[in-house]
Each structure stands twice: as C-alpha cells, then as structure tokens.
Amino acid sequence: MENIEIARVLNEYADLLELKVENRFRIRSYRKAAQMVQGLSTPIAQLIEQGKDLTVLPGVGDSMAEHIMEIFTSGTLKALDGLRKEIPAAVSELMEIERLGPKRTKQLQEQLGISSIKDLQQALDAGKLVRLPGFGKKSIEKLRQAIQTFQKRPKRFLLRDAEQLARPLIEHLGAGGDIEKVEIAGSYRRRMETVGDIDILVASENPESVMQRFQSYSEVVRVLAAGATRGTIILRSGLQVDLRILPRRSYGAALNYFTGSKAHNIALRSLGVEHGLRINEYGIFRVPRGVKPADPEKAEGERIGGADEQDVYRILKLDYVPPELRDARGEIQAAREHKLPELIKLNDIRGDFHMHSKWTDGNNTIEEMVRACEQLGYQYCAITDHSQAVHVAGGLSAKEIMAQLEEINKLRAKIHNIRLLAGCEVDILADGSLDYPDDLLDQLDIVVAAVHSKMAMTKSQMTKRVVKALAHPAVKILAHPTGRLINDREPYAIDLDEVFRAAKVFGVAVELNAQPDRLDLNDKHVQRTREIGVKIAINSDAHSVGQLRFMSYGIDQARRGWMEKQQVVNTMTWPQIGKWLKQRRQRLDTMAGS
DNA sequence: GCCGTTTTCGGCCCGACTGTTTTCAGTCG
User: Fold this and answer.
1) Residue of least CA–C1' distance to B5
2) Helix or strand or coil: residue A2?
3) What is the pLDDT of residue A291?
4) Alpha-carbon span A560 to A193, nearest angstrom
5) Are the C-beta atoms of residues A423 and A396 closer than 8 Å to each other?
6) Which residue has the higher pLDDT, A418 or A98?
7) CB A102 within 8 Å of CB A19
8) What SS3 state is found at A124?
9) Counting Cβ atoms within 10 Å, is residue A216 exposed (0-12), middle (13-18) or buried (19+)?
10) How many CA atoms does the CB half-sphere of A567 hold within 13 Å?
C-alpha cells in the first residue's frame, strides 16, 4: 500500500467527520496526518516492515498510529466503513461547491434529503431551498452560479500556464499606479507543479483604486468578492485569482502568510504563540496571551516586525525557509537546527543533456540549439534525438544517426565556446534491450534511455525492463522515469526505489525532465533520490530554442525536493563531466571482471 | 486527535467577506 493511498483513506475519513460536524480539531488531526503521510518520501510500508514506531512522525499519536496500521493491513478503517454506510458518497462532493461547507451541506441533507449535486440542482429548480433558514434570495442565486462554475471547473493549471495567465494581469495592475510592491504568492511562489489559483499581493496606500482596477481587467468573467482589502475574480480561462492589498509595513508578514502552505503557516503561528507572539498578515506583535484584539492592526502589544518576510523567521529564531520548502515536510525543525539544505539554483547549471533538433521532432537545427545553449552560458550540451522505434516523432534509423554524427563532427570545427556531445534518446524496448545495436551506441558520447511504448506492463515487468536497460554499458541517463504527463497520463507502474538503487550501482543518473507537463521525476521522487544517493540530471528535453529555458521548471521541482547541487550531474564543469562519462565505463568493466 | 520553555488537560492560527441571524455564523484562504 502506497503512502498516497493511506493519505486518501485518512482524508476521506476527515471528509465524513466534517459532514457529521465533528470537533474541528479532531478533523484537522486526520487532515494533518494525511498531509504528512503524503509528503513523506519514505514509504510507510517500509517503516512498518522495519518495525519503526509511527508515533515519532509529527502529528501522529497512539491513536493515529493504530489507524495507519489498520489501513496498512486491511486497506481501510472500520470506522470509515461505518460512516460510509451512514453518508452517501455523493454528499462529500457537495462540499466542493463554493459556499457549501459542512454545516450547510448537513442542513441540506437532513432537511431536504439532498445528497448529491444532482439533487441540489433539482431542489433549486423546484424552489425548495426558499424554505430553509439561512438561505436567502442572494444565497440561492449564488448557489446556482456556483454549481455551473463547479461543472465547468478546469483541472489544476500547469505552473507555466498559470504564469502566462498571471503576467498580463500583473502588468494591468501595475499600469494603474498606486502600487508600491506586487508579487504572486501562494502555491505559485512555492513553485508547485500545478496551481489551483493565483494569489496576488499588493502593497498600496490606495487600496480602493487597486481593487477597482483588479475588477476591471478585461479577462474577468465573474467577481466573487471585492472587499476593502481582499478580492476574488474568475478569469475567462477558468483561473481564480485572489488579490490582497496591505500597507507597505505589513508586506513581509502578508507575503509570508499568503505564500503558505497552510500547514507551514499554522506551524509558524503556533511557534509564535509559544514565544508570546501573535503573527498575522499585518505583522508580528508581542501580545499578552489570551488577549483577543478587536482590531488586528491595533493589537494591544508592540509591533516587532512585518515589513520584510525575513522578520518572521528571524524573530522566531529560524533560518530563512525558501518558499519551495514550505510544505510542512520538516523544514521548520531543519530551520531551527540550521540544517536546511543549500538548494540548487538555476545558475548552478552548466549544461543540458537532453534536447531535440529538426532531425526528429524538434523545431530548430542542431547549430541553432547549440548556439542557444552557448548564449545561456553552458559549457556543454548534448543533442539527443529519438531512436527508430519512436515513429511518431520521426525516430532516426541507424543510417540517419550516423549521418547526424557526421554533421555534429563538422559543426564542432565551428563551435569553440561550448562542448557539443553527440547523443541519442534511445528507446528501451519491451524486453529491456535498446533500440540500436551496441556498436552504434558505442560511437555516441552520451546515451539517454527512455520508455515510450508498451506502458501498460505490470509493475514488476516494467521495473525489470528498465533495470535491464540501466545495466547496459552505454546508458548514462534514464529519461522521464515514470512517463507521466500532468493532467493527461498517469505514471506507469514502476518500482522507483529499485530503479534508483540499480541506477546508483550502475553509475547512471536519473533525469528530472523539466518539460512543464512532465516534471518527471517529481518533487517527492527527488527527495527519495537524495535518501538513496543516486545522482540526477536536470534536462530541458527542449524541442525548440525557446524551450531550453524550461530548465527553470526543473530547478523549481529539484528545490522542492530539497536538492543540492552536488548531487546534480549537470552542475559539474566540463572536465568533471568528461571524467564522469569515462568513470561509468570503468566501473562496469570492473564489475564485469570481478 | 495531538501535544507540552505555563506539560498529561485544555488548549488547538488568524483574519476577511458575505448574507442575513439586527450582532454573527458560515465559509474560505
């Protein structure tokens, strides 16, 4: 049983407890535990098999540990099965509708027998809701709209798409003046692979004008809320955007609060309480405990920070936590003990080992790609077009790749500031063999191996197939190890732990493919590579000159996986890379000889 | 249900917006 499945059961239990309007702190415990389990890079199964005490995990006490054990052994919770009988499955779906929380959902179910969105629609059409206390004319109209919005709701947006939608809106806001500072916070700033909405933070002394301008953006199709300092709109694309406007002196505290994650915020504020501090989006205040200020800005107490985000961490005696780490995965403890990793940065990257040219499905010539890499300041790059099995991408026959090799050799005479490697993204066939004969592969500088077909194998078959390919002496990098396409294709079944261990033994690097819809490996996989100690390569897989810049999305996910540059092969200088390419061969020769 | 630099009980992050309940509950982030 995978961590994500355990988390799913805990979350479902929390959903149903919520509908029973249970103690909200009890519900939060289950959610917190679910989130913790989901963020764990080590499989729970492994901890249990090693006889580890689960209560050492944050947010897990005796009772939660028992629940997790029960889920692990039986696949479910008895208590959950009981609740499922009591509450129909479609009821929890109701809560996904804007404005419907646990209380109103419960009310609808108990008083009108509404237990699905369909029921709700019918009840609305029949005018039944009018009789309910708390449901006025406006509420009912908004509920109608909310159902429509829910039914048309898009999937989560790729980080890159969100960027492209947000940028013009930020420009629109900026053009109106009255803005001292503006930034996008939320999961966008934490660089999550997808975002559900956009959170914009503005420092301004004239919030009315900024809020006006926000609502007047030409892409707005609905205004959900527009208060004095806070507003929410829906864009034509379906993307929801929240705006928060605060004075400059609160900007840092607000940025911290609005960046999240929620769990990270709660942890920080709890820590604040321990220090006798109140932390909110307006600042950090020294406040006598138990005093509830009527006005957060005039809290009885002394303002001791908030203009800059660093204030929050400094005052709590924590090292600064980069946004990418703020997911309650141990970053606060690490910050307290000065053990945060020194995260890899984009300008640590010295080369790119995976890109395509016009020879297959790329848009640019080899020379154009190499020149662009040169412009990026790289010391080396590899052209890795597809091998013959990938017909749809125009994979190269053996003859064609030899011709390409010739072109590359000629090009080398013209190029002096960057090393050009002749490579190939060679297909791993169903039986684990490679798509070209060995004598051809031997002539290439670098071979990137990848699965592109027959993805519906069993987990053990796929794992065997990939591990066999890793053992081939020519292979240097395993590309997009799970094959997933975000919002489009699930990862194929594969035992990544086994793949990582094999890669480590054979001296192969595993790729973090930086295409915005791949990001494969993902952040949690990256964390696992750290634990296992296998090297990774962050590659753009660019199909055009412009896509070389996708590298930054790979860096984002590497940072989210706590990655430091020492473990990333393409941060090495050219001489080191030259050695790395040879090393692998020597290592295999030794293994063969022993 | 969890947890402890006020420790084994009694707290649990904190505030904005909306609609309708004339003083606040519900929802959201």
Assistant:
1) A274
2) coil
3) 53
4) 10
5) no
6) A418
7) yes
8) helix
9) exposed
10) 26
CA distance A97 to A328: 27
**DSSP states of A23-49:** -HHHHHHHHHHHHHHHH-SS-HHHHHH
Report the predicted TM-score, pTM, of the whole model to 2 decimal places: 0.87
CA A23 – C1' B12 distance (Å)? Answer: 11
Instruction: Tell me the CA–C1' distance in angstroms for A521 and B27.
Output: 36
Tokens of A247: 């004075």
Q: Which amino acid makes up residue A375?
A: Q
Token pair of A351 as six digits: 């080369």
Amino acid of residue A411:
L
User: Prior bond to A325 cis, omega within 30?
Assistant: no
Q: Is the CB of A299 under 7 A from strand B?
A: yes
Q: Whole-angstrom Cα distance, residue A295 to residue A259?
A: 23
How far apart, in whole angstroms, are the C-alpha atoms of residue A292 and residue A521? 46
Return all residues near A503 (Cβ < 8 A) that are at least 6 apart.
Answer: A470, A478, A509, A510, A534, A535
Distances from the Cα of A216 to the Cα of A91, A167, A224, A226, A286, angstroms: 37, 16, 13, 12, 39
Mean of per-residue pLDDT scores for chain A: 90
**pLDDT band at residue A593 using 50, 70 and 90 as cut-offs:** low
Tally of CB atoms within 10 A around A353: 28
Could you identify the residue whose CA is nearest to the C1' atom of nucleotide B6?
A274
In degrees, rounded to 5, the angle at the alpha carbon of residue A133 between the alpha carbons of residues A130 and A139 is 60
